[in-house]
Amino acid sequence: NRVMAALDRVAQRASGGAVLVVAHGGVVYSLEDACGEPWRRIPNLGARWFEITNGRLSVGPRVELIPDGTMPDVL
Predict the structure, then answer these.
(1) pLDDT digits (tens, 9 = 90+) for 3-62
(2) What single string gives the DSSP state of each residue in 20-71?
(3) Which of 37, 41, 49, 54 is surrounded by the most beta carbons within 10 Å?
């Protein structure tokens, strides 16, 4: 899996430190699937926390900067 291979390289370079990875929703869906999470749409400006510990991927909470269905005044 390209996504996991890329994350493994990032984790190795981070040497145990924290890293922020920004990616397209398709990458998030792929990682959720790898963790056994059911598919659920990610809204615009949505995100998901993941952690790699000892080479093992675990899923954390989702984050929504704007509640799904909200239309900002600037649009």
Answers:
(1) 989 988 998 898 878 889 999 999 999 999 999 999 999 888 889 999 988 888 999 999
(2) -----HHHHHHHHHHTTPPP-PPPTTEEEEEEEETTEEEEEEEEESS-TT--
(3) 37
Characterize the bridge pairing of strands 46-53 and 56-64: antiparallel
Residue 69: what pLDDT?
67
| Contact yes or no for 48/41 (Cβ under 8 A) | no
Two tokens, residue 67? 């509640």
Spatial separation of the C-alpha atoms in residues 36 and 23, rounded to whole Å: 19
pTM score of the predicted model: 0.78
Rounded distance between C-alpha atoms, residue 70 and residue 51, angstroms: 29
Q: What are the domain boundaries of the chain?
A: 2-64
